[in-house]
C-alpha cells in the first residue's frame, strides 16, 4: 500500500507540474494570436478611415499604403477596395476598384461577395452596421485559397482584407518556432453560430494528446473562436517518468523481500521449537541413546550454520535495496527509536545514518509547528501523535508532513507509515516509514495558487483573494464587535503616464507604487489591486476612524516623493475613499461601493487627498498643500522655465523648427514632470495664465535668436484644451506676436489629436482664425486615436507629429512599424507633412527615412535644452556652417 501510495503521489506531482507549465505556455501562444488579430483590425480601421477622408484615391496610393500592411503581416493575402453597386437595393455586387494582392486574384472588377452566401452576408452586415465583419472559414475551393475575409465600410466603399488562416495561426501561435520544438497542438473551432456543431477552422497536424487541454475564447469582428491547446506527448510527457517507475519497482522488491524474510523466520522458529521438544525427550533417556544424541546435536549445528548463511545472503539483498531506493526508508522500533535509515533518507534530511540509528526518533525531523498541530489534533504526544495522524487517514493515502532537515532546510514530504507485525502473534514490533520529497509538487501547487490569488504585476492580492480576506475580516469584526476600515484608492491621472511613456513605464510605476503601500500598513492589513490603477486596503481591528485617516495620510505622504521610472522622475498622487464597518455598511460589496463613492468625492475635492463616506466635511481642512496650491505659488514666484528641442529635416539634416517645453523646478520638491503638473494646471484653469507666459516667452526667445541670425525657423508652442476654450486666445496670440515682433509664420501652435476631437466645430473656428493670423498649425501625439484621421481634412493643418509611443518600438514591433509607415503614407496623400517624435536611435531614423518621413525630433539629435544651452548649440552650428562643415543632422 505504501509503495502504491508513494507512486500515485509522485505521479500526481509530475502531472501538476507539467500541466502548470503547459497552461502558462498555451496562454502565451494564444495571447500572441489575439494581439495579431487586434492589430489587423486596428489597421483596417485606419485604412477605412483614410478612405473615408481622402476618398478611394489612386490605385498606386492604395497599393503603397496596403503594401506596408501586407509586408508586416504575411498572412494577409490581399486587400481590396470595392465600389458598392447601388442599382439594386440592398446592393448585391461590390466590384473591386483597387486591389493589392500577392496572387492573381482578386483582380480589379472582382465582386467581393462572389465567394458565396457567407461572403455576401458578411459584406451586407459590414455595410449595415459600420463595424468590421469577418466571414467564417471559406472553403479551400474558394478562389483565393482557404481563409477568412474581413469586410468593413470605408466611406462610400467596401474594404476587404483576405487572411490566410493557417498562415495566421502558424505565424502567431508558433511565432517563428522550429516545427520540432513545437510543444503543443492547437485546434480552432468557430463557435459563432452553434457551439455544438462548430466547424473546425484550423488544426495542427503535429499530433495531440487529449488527456488534458487548455481552452480560450477569442472574439473579434462578430466571430467567436474557441482555441483548444493540447500538449504533444513529446514535450509535455504525462506518462510516468522512468525514475518514478524505478521507485515503484524498488518498493515492490522491498515488499517481496520482507515477505520472504517473514516466511523464512517463521520456518526457522518452527524448526527450533521442534528441536527443543525432541531434545527434552532425549534428555529423559540420557544414558540409553547417548550416541544418537551426539549425532542429533551435530546435525543441528550443521543446520544452524546453513540458516545463518541464508540469513546473511538475504541481509545483503535487503541492504542493496535499501541503498538503491530513491525515497527515504526509516524503520523504528515500537518506541520510535530509529533502527534503519537508508541513504535516500540521509540525503533528504541531510543527516548521516550513524548519527540517527539507535539515537533519534523521526519526530526530531518533523517541523515543530507541524508537530504541535498533530498533537493538538490527536490529543496525543510525540511519536504517538504521528502514528495516530497516520492511522486517522486511509492507509493508501500518505500523510503530508513538513520535515526539517538537519541543516534547517524545510522538506515537504509525503509519508506513509505502516506497522510491522510479528508473524506469530501479530504483535507490533516496529514501524516502517516511507517518505518521498514533494518539494516540486508543492512548488507547482503554490504557483498555481499564487496565480489564482495574486496580481502577477504587483504581487499584491487580487480581487478574488481580497473578497476572501474581507469576508473573513468582517466575520471576525462582527464576532468581536470591532470596527473595520476599507480604503478605495485610485491613482490620479495615471492614464497620462501610460499614454505618454508607454505601458511598460506604467507597469513599472504601478509596481513601485505597490511597494510603497506595503510600508503604510500593519501586518494584518491587506492591500489588494483591483485592476488598472485601483487598489483596496482593508484595515481589520480598527481602533477609530482617525486610525483609517492616518493610514490614508501615510499613503498620500508615501507617494509624494517622485519615482524614478526608466529615467523619468514621475510623481503620482492618490485619491482615497474610506468606508467604515459597521457605520457605512455591513457587507463587503456595500463597503467597497461606499469607499468607491467616497474616492470620487476625493477626486472632486482636488485629488491627492482622502474622504470619508458621507462625511466630506470632516476632511475639508486638508492638512497637505495640494499640487494646485504649489502651482499657483510657482506662477507668482516665476519658478517656470522653458526648454527648447530642435526639429530636424530628415533629408537635409537642417533644423527646421524648435519646440518650447515647459519646465518647473519646485524649490522644495525639485523638478516636477510636465506630465504631472500640466494636467493639474489644466484642471484648475491655471494653464491659462501659465500658457500665456509660455507663448510670450517662447516668441520673445525665437525673435531674439532670429535677430541675432542664429536661427530663423518656426517656434512650436503646445496649447492645452483650457487655453482653447478661452475666447481671448487669438487676441493673446496676436498681442504676443505684435509685442515680440515675431513674424506670424514663425509660430506654430501645437494641439493634440484629442483636443481636436473634443469639439471639432469650435476647433475649426479657432484654427481658421489662427490661419488668418498666419501662424502654422501642428497636431501633436498623433496615432493615439485612429478615428481622428477623418477629422483632419476639415482643419487647416500643416503638420502631423506621430506620437513617440509608436516610434519607440518601430525597430522591434512590426505592428508599430506598420502603423507609423501607414500614417506617413496616408498623411502624404493628404499633403500633410509628418514629423516623428521621440526618435532615439539611428535605426529608427533609418526606417523613417525609408518611409519618406519629413522630419524628426528626439534625443538622437538633442534633448530639450535650457535657453542658454540652446544658444550655445546654435552659435556652434553657425560657426560650423560659416566654416563649411556639414550640418548637425548629417554628422
Ligand atoms: N522618451 C523620449 N522623450 C522625448 C524625446 N524627445 C523629446 N521627448 C519628450 O517628449 C515630449 C514631447 O512633448 P509633447 O508630446 O508635446 O508632450 C508634452 C506636452 O503635451 C506637455 N507640455 C510640455 N510643455 C508644455 C506647454 O508649454 N504647454 C502645454 N499645454 N503642454 C506642455 O507635456 C508633455 C510632456 O512634455 P515633456 O515631459 O517635456 O516631454 C517632451 C520631451 O521632453 C525622445 O527622444 N525620447
From TrEMBL:
PROSITE patterns linked to this entry: EAL, GGDEF, PAC, PAS
One MF annotation (Gene Ontology) recorded for this entry: cyclic-guanylate-specific phosphodiesterase activity
Keywords recorded for this protein, A-Z: Signal
Keyword set includes Cell wall biogenesis/degradation: no
Record domain PAC: where: 397-450
Classification via InterPro entries: Biofilm_reg_signaling, EAL_dom, EAL_sf, GGDEF_dom, Nucleotide_cyclase, PAC, PAS, PAS-assoc_C
UniProt keyword Membrane, yes or no: no
The EAL domain, residue ranges: 624-878
Catalytic reaction equation(s): 3',3'-c-di-GMP + H2O = 5'-phosphoguanylyl(3'->5')guanosine + H(+)
Protein's name according to its UniProt entry: EAL domain-containing protein
Lineage of source species: Bacteria, Pseudomonadati, Pseudomonadota, Betaproteobacteria, Rhodocyclales
Amino acid at each position: 500500500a505504501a509503495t502504491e501510495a508513494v507512486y500515485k503521489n509522485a505521479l500526481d506531482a509530475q502531472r501538476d507540474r507539467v500541466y502548470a507549465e503547459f497552461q502558462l505556455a498555451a496562454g502565451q501562444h494564444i495571447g500572441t494570436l489575439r494581439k495579431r488579430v487586434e492589430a489587423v483590425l486596428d489597421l483596417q480601421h485606419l485604412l477605412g478611415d483614410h478612405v473615408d477622408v481622402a476618398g478611394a484615391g489612386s490605385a498606386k496610393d492604395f497599393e503603397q499604403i496596403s503594401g506596408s500592411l501586407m509586408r508586416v503581416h504575411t498572412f494577409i493575402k490581399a486587400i481590396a477596395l470595392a465600389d458598392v453597386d447601388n442599382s439594386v437595393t440592398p446592393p448585391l455586387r461590390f466590384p473591386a476598384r483597387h486591389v493589392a494582392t500577392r496572387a492573381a486574384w482578386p483582380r480589379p472588377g472582382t465582386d467581393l461577395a462572389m465567394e458565396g452566401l457567407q461572403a455576401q452576408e458578411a459584406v451586407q452586415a459590414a455595410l449595415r452596421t459600420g463595424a468590421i465583419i469577418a466571414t467564417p472559414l471559406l472553403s479551400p475551393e474558394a478562389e483565393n485559397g482557404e481563409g477568412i475575409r474581413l469586410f468593413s465600410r470605408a466611406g462610400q466603399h467596401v474594404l476587404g482584407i483576405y487572411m490566410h488562416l493557417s498562415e495566421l495561426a502558424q505565424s502567431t501561435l508558433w511565432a517563428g518556432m522550429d516545427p520540432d520544438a513545437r510543444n503543443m497542438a492547437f485546434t480552432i473551432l468557430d463557435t459563432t453560430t452553434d457551439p455544438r456543431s462548430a466547424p473546425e477552422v484550423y488544426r495542427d497536424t503535429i499530433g495531440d494528446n487529449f488527456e488534458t487541454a487548455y481552452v480560450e475564447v477569442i472574439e473579434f469582428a462578430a466571430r467567436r473562436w474557441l482555441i483548444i491547446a493540447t500538449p504533444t506527448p513529446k514535450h509535455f510527457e504525462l506518462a510516468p517518468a522512468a525514475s518514478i517507475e524505478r521507485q515503484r519497482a524498488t518498493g515492490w522488491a522491498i515488499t517481496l523481500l520482507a515477505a520472504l524474510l517473514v516466511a523464512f523466520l517463521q520456518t526457522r522458529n518452527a524448526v527450533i521449537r521442534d528441536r527443543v521438544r525432541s531434545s527434552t525427550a532425549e534428555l529423559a533417556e540420557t544414558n540409553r541413546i547417548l550416541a544418537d544424541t551426539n549425532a542429533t546435536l551435530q546435525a543441528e549445528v550443521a543446520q544452524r550454520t546453513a540458516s545463518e548463511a541464508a540469513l546473511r545472503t538475504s541481509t545483503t539483498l535487503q541492504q542493496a535495496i535499501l541503498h538503491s531506493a530513491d525515497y527515504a526508508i526509516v524503520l523504528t522500533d515500537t518506541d520510535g527509536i530509529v533502527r534503519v535509515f537508508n541513504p535516500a533518507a540521509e540525503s533528504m534530511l541531510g543527516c548521516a545514518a550513524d548519527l540517527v540509528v539507535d539515537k533519534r526518533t523521526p519526530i526530531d525531523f518533523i517541523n515543530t509547528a507541524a508537530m504541535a498541530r498533530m498533537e493538538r489534533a490527536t490529543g496525543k504526544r510525540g511519536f504517538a501523535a504521528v502514528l495516530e495522524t497516520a492511522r486517522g487517514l486511509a492507509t493508501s493515502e500518505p500523510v503530508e508532513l513538513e520535515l526539517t532537515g538537519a541543516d534547517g532546510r524545510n522538506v515537504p514530504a509525503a509519508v506513509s507509515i505502516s506497522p510491522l507485525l510479528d508473524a506469530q502473534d501479530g504483535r507490533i514490533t516496529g514501524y516502517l516509514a516511507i517518505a518521498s520529497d514533494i518539494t516540486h509538487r508543492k512548488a507547482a501547487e503554490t504557483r498555481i495558487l499564487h496565480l489564482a490569488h495574486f496580481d502577477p504585476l504587483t504581487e499584491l492580492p487580487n480581487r478574488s483573494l481580497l473578497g476572501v480576506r474581507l469576508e473573513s475580516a468582517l466575520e471576525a469584526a462582527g464576532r468581536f464587535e470591532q470596527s473595520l476600515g476599507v480604503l478605495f484608492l485610485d491613482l490620479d491621472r495615471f492614464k497620462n503616464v501610460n499614454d505618454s511613456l508607454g505601458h511598460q513605464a506604467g507597469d513599472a510605476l504601478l509596481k513601485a507604487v505597490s511597494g510603497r503601500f506595503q510600508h503604510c500598513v500593519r501586518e494584518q492589513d491587506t492591500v489588494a489591486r483591483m485592476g488598472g490603477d485601483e487598489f483596496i486596503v482593508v484595515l481589520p481591528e480598527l481602533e477609530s476612524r482617525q486610525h483609517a485617516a492616518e493610514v490614508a495620510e501615510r499613503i498620500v505622504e508615501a507617494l509624494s516623493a517622485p519615482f524614478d521610472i526608466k529615467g523619468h522622475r514621475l510623481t503620482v498622487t492618490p485619491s482615497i475613499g474610506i468606508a467604515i464597518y459597521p457605520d457605512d455598511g455591513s457587507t463587503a460589496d456595500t463597503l467597497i461601493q461606499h469607499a468607491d463613492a467616497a474616492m470620487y468625492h476625493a477626486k472632486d475635492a482636488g485629488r491627492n487627498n482622502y474622504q470619508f463616506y458621507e462625511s466630506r466635511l470632516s476632511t475639508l481642512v486638508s492638512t497637505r498643500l495640494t499640487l494646485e496650491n504649489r502651482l499657483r505659488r510657482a506662477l507668482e514666484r516665476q519658478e517656470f522655465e522653458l526648454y527648447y528641442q530642435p526639429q530636424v529635416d530628415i533629408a537635409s539634416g537642417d533644423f527646421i523648427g524648435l519646440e518650447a517645453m515647459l519646465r518647473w523646478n519646485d524649490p522644495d520638491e525639485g523638478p516636477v514632470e510636465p506630465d504631472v503638473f500640466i494636467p493639474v494646471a489644466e484642471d484648475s484653469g491655471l494653464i491659462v495664465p501659465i500658457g500665456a507666459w509660455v507663448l510670450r516667452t517662447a516668441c520673445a526667445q525665437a525673435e531674439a535668436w532670429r535677430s541675432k541670425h542664429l536661427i530663423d525657423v518656426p517656434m512650436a508652442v503646445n496649447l492645452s484644451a483650457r487655453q482653447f476654450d478661452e475666447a481671448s486666445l487669438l487676441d493673446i496670440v496676436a498681442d504676443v506676436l505684435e509685442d515680440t515682433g515675431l513674424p506670424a509664420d514663425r509660430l506654430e501652435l501645437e494641439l493634440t489629436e484629442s483636443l481636436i476631437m473634443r469639439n471639432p466645430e469650435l476647433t475649426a473656428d479657432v484654427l481658421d482664425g489662427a490661419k488668418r493670423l498666419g501662424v502654422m498649425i501642428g497636431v501633436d501625439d498623433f496615432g493615439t486615436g485612429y478615428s481622428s484621421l477623418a477629422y483632419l481634412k476639415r482643419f487647416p493643418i500643416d503638420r502631423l507629429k506621430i506620437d513617440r509611443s509608436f516610434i519607440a518600438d518601430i525597430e522591434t514591433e512590426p505592428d508599430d512599424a506598420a502603423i507609423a509607415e501607414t500614417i506617413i503614407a496616408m498623411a502624404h496623400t493628404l499633403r500633410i507633412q509628418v514629423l516623428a517624435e521621440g526618435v532615439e536611435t539611428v535605426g529608427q531614423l533609418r526606417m523613417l527615412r525609408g518611409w519618406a518621413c519629413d522630419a524628426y525630433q528626439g534625443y538622437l539629435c538633442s534633448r530639450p535644452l535650457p535657453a542658454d544651452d540652446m544658444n550655445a548649440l546654435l552659435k556652434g552650428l553657425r560657426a560650423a556652417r560659416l566654416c563649411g562643415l556639414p550640418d548637425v543632422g548629417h554628422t
